[in-house]
Amino acid sequence: MDISGVMTMAQGTRGYWDPMYFYTGRLTEKSDVYSFGVVLLELLTRKKPFLYLSSNDESLVAHFVTLFEKGKLLEILDPQVMEGGKKVEEVATIAVACVKLRGDDRPTMRQVELTLKGAHESTEQSSDNVNPSTKGERNTKGSTRQYSMEHEFNLSAEYPR
């Protein structure tokens, strides 16, 4: 009853935290956008942001952004991810926008969602024009999958994380 305020502390894994938190001590909605961007980078590279350090002593985020700006993403992308073609470039662009240093420079999660949805839909439309014999089979829920789920897990397990 005599408590006048509650003090909380941010929790999470190092590497996913918004850098602005260290300056302001506050987490915002744009902090979530930053963390989501780091997750996208992790998916694109299959590297753990809290363990990664480049030869120039850059974090995963800094190294990815540097390579993106130089047009050399192939140096850091996971080999299996590179098969995604144009879609990978679109996701990389979204990820880089999400991990901007200043929160005001980042998109909202709604903007990220709509951009990802647009990238997905444009890919679906172009895959409808592909020869049916090269497309994956449609399952009962309408998604396209080239392999069974078990086969996809086995393929994913071949690449170290």
From TrEMBL:
Q: GO MF annotations for this entry?
A: ATP binding; protein serine/threonine kinase activity
**Entry's InterPro entries?**
Kinase-like_dom_sf, Prot_kinase_dom, WAK-like
Give me any GO biological process, just one: cell surface receptor signaling pathway
Which residues lie within the region annotated Disordered? Answer: 117-161
Q: Can the keyword Nucleotidyltransferase be found in this entry's annotation?
A: no
What region holds the Protein kinase domain?
1-123
Q: Which Gene3D superfamilies does this one have? A: Transferase(Phosphotransferase) domain 1
Q: Which UniProt keywords apply?
A: ATP-binding, Nucleotide-binding
User: What PANTHER family would the database entry show?
Assistant: PROTEIN KINASE DOMAIN-CONTAINING PROTEIN, WALL-ASSOCIATED RECEPTOR KINASE-LIKE 21
Q: What is this protein called?
A: Protein kinase domain-containing protein
- Recorded source organism is Triticum urartu
